[in-house]
Amino acid sequence: xxKEELKIGEISKPRFEFRSFGQDFEEAAYLMxxxxxxxxxxxxxxxxxxIYIVSKTNDVNNTKIRDGKMDIKTFVTEVDGLEQWNPLMxxxxxxxxxxxxxxxxxxxxxxxxxxxxxxxxxxxFMEIINNHNDLQAVRVHKERYGYMVNNTICxxxxxxxxxxxxxSVNSESTEIEDIKKTIxxxxxxxxxxxxxxxxxxxxxxxxxxxxxx
Length: 213
Known about the structure:
Layout (H helix, E strand, L loop, with lengths): L15 E7 L3 H10 L10 E10 L5 E6 L2 E11 L2 E11 L2 E2 H12 L10 E2 L1 H9 L4 E15 L2 E10 L2 E10 L2 H10 L10 H9 L9
Antiparallel strand pairs: 1-5, 1-10, 2-3, 2-8, 3-4, 4-5, 6-7, 8-9, 9-10
């Protein structure tokens, strides 16, 4: 079967992903830029402010809010150390109490509070989060620089997690072997695969693990 030709910035079938976080990926970033094929101008540099909702009891559902919209992705499987995540839901505020109870708090893997309204604004939802002992809203600012290496979608990102600066590198594709080749070419063999949920928990002190460097 022919490989899918990935197009950066466009939706494809679910991809596998390698990502890591640390203080210094200067060499990998240099190699990524040198090895990259041309990419569309719209992905040269992207900037966003997001709010991740992390849960003490959940490591498999990634919940974030960007541009006033809620996005939840769920972990599907791991193959050769590479992770696959699929969209679970997307929602806009105001959001119904039924969706909060049956989808959002289910994804947090915590007991849902009692809702006394039919729908909730963003501010009302955030008040619920801030008052919950097992949940925390974490502000994440991203400056992402897009590349394409070995037909894998790559990026280097400067990331602020509640103001703490770290760097991320990643390679994602529907083809596992292409990611492995890219990891080798970027001299990242042996570097820990760390997803956003794990990185955030390490930075805010919910995990005692260190970042990759």
